[in-house]
Amino acid sequence: MRGLWQFPTNLLARNRERSEALDSSAPKTIRPITNTPMRKPVIAGNWKMYKTVGDSVATALSLKPLVANANHCEVVIAPVFTALKSVADRLEGSNIKIAGQDCAPVAEEGAQTGEVAAFQLRDAGATYVIIGHSERRQFHGETDPVIRQKVEAALASGLQVILCVGESLEQRHRGIEVQVVASQLRGGLGGLTASDLDRIIVAYEPIWAIGTGTAATPEQAQEMHGLIRRAFAEKISEAGADQLRILYGGSVKADNIKSLMSGPDIDGVLVGGASLSAESFAQIVNYKE
Ligand code: PGA
What is the number of the ligand 1 atom nearest to the C-alpha of 274? Predict the structure, then answer.
């Protein structure tokens, strides 16, 4: 029996062929824009460990009027924990939603020095939480089993999860990027039911594109997003997969957002560096104008 989240082998073969084709100088083609209206794009800014409380509030307040007319997408920002409540309070009634950047792997309060539980993020005003960012995996030793516990804790607390997956440059060079992503999905989501998965957003963030200035090409991003959606279709249902929002992250800027969003399976972006300034993040949010 095919394992959970295992990509079908014919898709793997096609991926390999496509990857080779993408490396050649052959003209690159992508499918036309067919973003399903049912999947409202999410444009999320991850502020990482930047900004004081004052800077965070100031950036949020500058952003508010700049994205006030953005009805085509959900706008989300993820400030540092200490600024979360102040930012959320100042954005109340606006169209900007708040995400935590991580949460504890347990849902209940308790003796866990240094941790912040998902319900505490909610209490502070968050409706989303980013889980399994590659910086957590790389620099804080987060493994798939821990990530799965965090996903479960977040869902139990009523948060929506943005689960990050993505391969390293070395893994892409070895041609195992699809297997790596499949294994991260299996590891992070394997135990969940179809109804839990309604509150999951997947963010494909190739590590080699994060903070490097070299984004994945729209073709590379679309290819992986398409494979992720197929895996959900096989595991859950076509309808469930149709609803799943899959974000791309890694060096998204105002000048590449439009081409990235043209991929039919690209349902938004997770932005790091370019989300730190209200003006540059607003340009990304308002990419359609
Ligand atoms: P970047 O970061 O936009 O600075 O590449 C993306 C991320 O880490 O989510």
Answer: 3
